[in-house]
Design brief:
two-stranded antiparallel ribbon; binds zinc ion; 26% strand; alpha+beta; single chain; 4 strands; 2 helices
Amino acid sequence: MANTVECPVCGMQVDPDNAPASDTYDDQTYVFSSTTCRDAFTEDPGRYVGNTGS
Ligand SMILES: [Zn+2]
């Protein structure tokens, strides 16, 4: 399996090489399970990246 990352909005596992959407925030690249999640993230990034590292 390729490495996957968690969609910060809905928690789904996403393959970064095949992600339907991505965005950069605070020098970090995030990938999303859908453009809907990307749009939600863009609206309020701090809501989704406030508790990284757990
Ligand atoms: Zn998602």
